[in-house]
Amino acid sequence: MAREKISKERPGARFHGRVEADGRRCEAPGCDEAGEFRAPRRDGGRQGDGPGGYRWFCLEHVRAFNAGYNYFAGMTVEEIHDAQRPYAGWERETRAFAHAGADPAPAWADFADPLEAIGATIRDRAAERAAARAERQDGRPLTSLDRSALKVMGLAVDADRSALRKRYSELVRRYHPDRNGGDRAHEAALQKVIAAYQQLRTSRAFA
Questions:
Q1: What is the tens place of the pLDDT at every residue in 104-155?
Q2: 0.85 surpassed by pTM
Q3: 38: which strand partners?
């Protein structure tokens, strides 16, 4: 009766563990249902170091098999003890990932960059480093605070006091709430501009 119910309500393709039988029959004696669910062989069925073989059952008989399955069946007390150790299976030697401590990083030339995404990033970073080391042509020294302030203002290292005042006026007009309908969203940027201007107007480079 149960077998007839299973046959009429056959598990769908998404049923957990089901494998299309393709003519394979259940290995339970006297069962004519399709063998769509696998179970390990009692003897392991191993061939060399490969995984063990399987027996194939219908849903009813694989459930019966699972209900009575005992992984430790046929093992001695010592074998059961070894299999239950927390680190069982971890004693085997594993392959090292690198012979010299770390694999060498790939060269940029090995990458295809048709959109110049990598190349543009490298050039931008190189330009930033060059700007951070650039000196004024008039020989006036720039401190790290001066360089940070110039970056906030968007000015080159050779800017003079006239360029500084002009740029300051532009940025104040851009960020001031009165020029943005009372919107104070740019207030933080305005404060940075004011601080940068105060730093540069008293700097030896703009004396």
A1: 666 666 666 666 666 667 676 766 676 667 888 888 888 989 999 999 999 9
A2: no
A3: 56
For the chain, how many residues are written?
207
Within this chain, do residues 112 and 150 fall inside the same structural domain, yes or no? yes
The stretches of 109-159 forming alpha helices (DSSP H) are: 117-133, 144-153
The two three-digit tokens of residue 92, written as one number:
């085997």
pLDDT digits (tens, 9 = 90+) for 21-33: 788 899 999 998 9
Paired tokens of 43: 């003897």
- For the four alpha carbons of 31, 32, 37 and 39, in that order, the dihedral sign comes to positive
Same domain, 173 and 128: yes
Whether residue 54 contacts residue 40, with contact meaning beta carbons closer than 8 Å, is answered with yes
What is the residue range of 161's domain? 108-206
